[in-house]
Design goal:
It is built from no helices and six strands. With 88 residues, it is mostly beta strands.
Length: 88
């Protein structure tokens, strides 16, 4: 999927340990050009964190991402994972 908007917020890098090894995640929040109240939070994982390093709040971007859902102990969880992001 694609989303066009402005960078509203860039979160801190979070890391941890799982059964599969060490992981890193960073969340970026984008706001729609048409409706600034319409925001999308995307998680960048692993080597995709490099793509966020040069971004700044307010920049116009095109983000390519995937949405997936999984069932957990307390219900369903949906995540939006960043695949690519480019400045416009």
């Amino acid at each position: 999927m694609e989303y066009f908007g402005r960078v509203k917020e860039i979160g801190q890098v979070v890391s941890g340990q799982s059964e599969r090894g060490t992981w890193q995640r960073q969340t970026i929040v984008l706001e729609s050009f048409e409706n600034p109240n319409n925001c999308l939070a995307l998680d960048a994982l692993g080597d995709r964190l490099v793509k966020l390093a040069s971004l700044q709040v307010g920049q116009a971007v095109k983000a390519v991402f995937a949405v997936s859902s999984r069932k957990g102990d307390n219900g369903w969880f949906t995540s939006a994972t960043l695949w690519d992001i480019t400045r416009l």
